[in-house]
Amino acid sequence: MPLTSPPIDELADEVLATSDTALPERAAGLTVREFLATGPTLDEFWTPLTVLNADALAHNAATIQAWSTAHGMELMPHGKTTMAPALWWLQLDAGATGLTLATPGQVRTARSFGVASIMLANALVAPRALAFIAAELADPNFAFRSWVDSIETVEAMERGLSATDAELTRPIDVLVELGAHGGRTGARTLDDAEALARRVTESPVLRLAGVAGYEGSLGHDRTGHALVAVRDYLSDLLELHDTVRAIAGDEEPLIVSAGGSAYLDHVADVFEPAIEADAAAGRRTRWILRSGASLLHDDGFYHGISPLDAMRNHSHGPTLVPAMRGYARVVSHPEPGLALLDGGKRDFPYDEGMPVPFGRAADLGGPEEPLVGASVTALNDQHAFLRSTAPLPLAIGDVVSLGLSHPCTAFDKRRWLPVVEGAGSTRVVDLVRTFF
C-alpha cells in the first residue's frame, strides 16, 4: 500500500516529468496519484534503477521501534539517510518520537512536512539558520535541540542570534556533545565537556538539555579493538550525563542520545544499568536512539555489522531485512568473464562496499536466475564492472539485480524511487520523493 501520511499527501499531487530519471515516459504530465492509478509495473521503468520494498520497510520500521522500546529507549531515526518525508512519517506513525537531522536545511525541509520534534545532530552556528529556528520556536508544539562541542560554538550561537535580531520566545535547547580522540566532532575530554556544560548554563539564549554523541565513528567492524573503543566511549558518555545532571538539576528531563545502526546493541547494553537506575530514582531521563539506516538495512556494510541482521541475531527475534535493490542492464560483454552494466557511481552507493550481483533476468521484474561466482569489482561514473573467473551467462540487454550497501548514499541519486509491494512483486504501488 502507498507510504503516505496526511502531512505528505500533497506529494501525490506533484506532476511527473520526462526529466525524472528512470520513470516511464508515459508518466510525464501525470501527477503521482494519476500515474499510480494506472497500475504501473517495474518493467516499464528505465535502468539504472533503485527500487524499494514496501513490506520490508514496514517490517523494519516495526522491528527497530519495538527493539528500541524493549530496551527503554525512544527512537528518533536519522532522517538524512533518506531525506524522504514519506519514510520519515512511516517511522513517526510507527512510534518514533521525532527525527534526527544533520543540517539546518534538512531541518527546514522536515518542518515543511510537519515534523514537530527534531534533533540537529550538529552545531547550529549560521546566523540565518539560527534566526529560522528562533522563529520556529514561537510554535509551542515544536521541540528542537542541537549539539554543542566547544565554548566557541556557544559564543558563535550567541553572536549569530544577536546579529540577526532574532526574537527568542524560549531558549534553544542544546546537548553537550562528547567526542573522542581520533573521532569526529565533540569535546575531546570529560573536563572540556563539563566546562562547556557550565558555560551553557550562563547563556541567556541557550538551555542545557543533556548529552549526546556518536559511537559509530570509533569502529568499522566488530573486532575486539573496535568494540572496546565503542564501549569505553559510551561509558564516558554516561559519566558526562551524571556530571550534566548535577549541573542542570532534575527539574526538566535530560536527554542522553547515542546510537547509529552498527553498535546499537552495545549502546543498549552499556546504557541498561543507568536506564534502570534513573527509572528507580524517578528521574525522567530521555534515552534516545538515532539509528537511521535500520529502516532500509542493506546487503553490504550493515548486513555485516548490524546486531539485528539475521547473520548475527541469535535471539530468534525479528531481524532487519534489506528494503532496497538496484537494477542495471548489460550494455557490453567484451570478454567471457566481464560484463559492463549501465549503472555506476552516479547511480548506486559504493563508499561502503560495491553492489552485490544476485541474479539475471531478461527484463526488470522478470524471473531471475542466480549469478554464481560473479562480483562487481569497480564502478565508473555510469558503468559497473561485473567480473567472474568463469564465462558469465549474460546477454546484451539482460538486467542484473544488485544488493546495495549503505543506505545513506543510496537515496541522493534519485528524485523519485519506485516502491513495489513486496519480494517478487512487479506492481509499483508508490513513488518515494527525496529532497537532497
From TrEMBL:
SMART domains: D-ser_dehydrat (SM01119). It comes from the Bacteria. InterPro entries: Ala_racemase_N, D-amino_acid_metab_enzyme, D-ser_dehydrat-like_dom, D-ser_dehydrat-like_sf, PLP-binding_barrel. GO terms for molecular function: lyase activity. It comes from Agromyces mariniharenae. Coiled coil: none annotated. Signal peptide: none annotated. The lineage of its organism: Bacteria, Bacillati, Actinomycetota, Actinomycetes, Micrococcales. This is D-serine dehydratase-like domain-containing protein. Belongs to the DSD1 family. Keywords: Lyase. Residues 323-421 form the D-serine dehydratase-like domain. Pfam families: Ala_racemase_N, D-ser_dehydrat.
